[in-house]
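Appendix B, record 7
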Amino acid sequence: PFLMKDMDKAVARIEKAITSKENILVYGDYDVDGTTSVALMASYLKTRHELVLTYIPNRYDEGYGISYKGINFALENDFTLIIALDCGIKAVEKVAYAKELGIDFIICDHHRPGADIPDAVAVLDPKQDDCNYPYKELCGCGVGFKLIQALNSKEGKGVEDLVEYLDLVATAIGADIVPITGENRALAYFGLQVINQDPRIGIKTILQQVKKDTFTITDVVFIIAPRINAAGRMKHGNHAVALLTETDFNLAAEYATEIEQFNLDRREADKRIT
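Structure tokens (predicted):
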């Protein structure tokens, strides 16, 4: 992971936040790549730090990417570090605004950068011209995974300790239609093993609604992804993050039922619009 530009800076800033007990806001978009990224980063950080909260912008009120409303939420609630996932590479003005307020940003994105790079503490994006990371096609959740891999290695632990997060990474790879080559292929392969053998409770409750024994990457695209997406389209992306981070089976089952209803509503709306 340290082959990625700014990875050392990102790790140092997060470790500082943990040591000095800062509030950390994990920010991501309302689509599958965004919500899985937020679930991944928040659930990992919560194993090391209590003061972690998630933020998903409202699709209709705030729109795509980092919003001023989100930064103001961080200010009002005493967050001094925002980790943005699957967005932020073009949020030059918003990151500058946050900096004026004393809020630091770490950006984990995979979209192509514009002419200017935001003045964040660290910008992780393998598509930056001066980033020498050998694989350029990671999705947002994949970049987030590289960051937790880097953080974990500082604790003297290997990537095998992070296998439980690969169900989220494989879901994002499938849903975001990134090329399943190179590192994505390895992450998807092992992520599918997790999905089939021991997925997180939230994914398990989605899969239980479908009568099927083995799940392929196609099932990820057509079964898991639309349900996670439906939350952000019909209600709010927070519902997806709540499901993907829930550890109580009964609560997760309730969330999954709600999300199934959002998905049915989405299909109905699609038909009506068509």
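Remarks on this record: The chain is about 55% helix and 10% strand. Residues 249-273 form the longest helix (25 residues).
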